Amino acid sequence: MRNQGYSWEETRDRISEEIISGRLAADTKLPSEPELCVLYGARRHSLRKALAALVTEGKLRVEHGRGTFVERAPLLNYVIGERTRFRENLLSQGLTASGETLSEMKIPASTRVAAALKIAADAPVFARSWRGFANDLPISTGWAYYDATRFPDLLERRRDTRSITDVYRSYGITDYRRQSTTVLTRIASEREAAMLMMRPGQSVLVVQKVDADLDGRPISFSEAVWAGDRVQFTFEADQPTVMTTERPSDD
């Protein structure tokens, strides 16, 4: 600990980072002021200013007579319908949408992927692993699969464009729709919890979906894992949906 202690801004940022990372989970009661001063190496005045700033930001709440608690992050309401778009969903709620590619490869289609894309088993598909963010907070991670015969240079085009919608347009697919959606729940794996900055043992929502062109021909199949405590799904009336609590097959 430094002799002068951390500034209130530094203290605020350190506590904020622990909240965002999940080390300080929602509804956790913070220790007493003296304990926090020792824990974060801050003087009491700096600590109080930092806590007040985090209350203003909505990351902490004060319950009079009980103490200071980590506030629950507001749920993202993700609307699933015929035309479901990640970026548009977040922008409509004032959130910044972003994503990163984790890996890309060309592989033989598994039985499940082939059935979803309506192609032969072991036919070549492009597989892309990704992670999605809302205001820099990870909310989803998963895999997407595309028919490599129909889209022979999809991965190269994907790297040069902002969204998969733009990639489809480059192939002459001006519009596409959600053909099916299946939602499952289970406990996050250790890797998924780390990727989504969740505590071990928390639940995730698993969304398997098929998108198709306007002729009804599948163009992609994906399986995404969403942070269950940050996202809720709203299904439009015309969206066919299957709900189950079974763990998805690894096939």
From TrEMBL:
SMART domains: HTH_GNTR, UTRA. Gene3D superfamilies: Chorismate lyase-like, Winged helix-like DNA-binding domain superfamily/Winged helix DNA-binding domain. InterPro entries: Bact_HTH_transcr_reg, Chorismate_lyase_/UTRA_dom_sf, CP_lyase_PhnF, Tscrpt_reg_HTH_GntR, UTRA, WH-like_DNA-bd_sf, WH_DNA-bd_sf. The keyword Transcription applies. It holds the Pfam family GntR. Keywords: DNA-binding, Transcription, Transcription regulation. The keyword DNA-binding applies. It comes from the Bacteria. Residues 5-73 form the HTH gntR-type domain. This is Phosphonate metabolism transcriptional regulator PhnF. It comes from Nitratireductor aquimarinus.
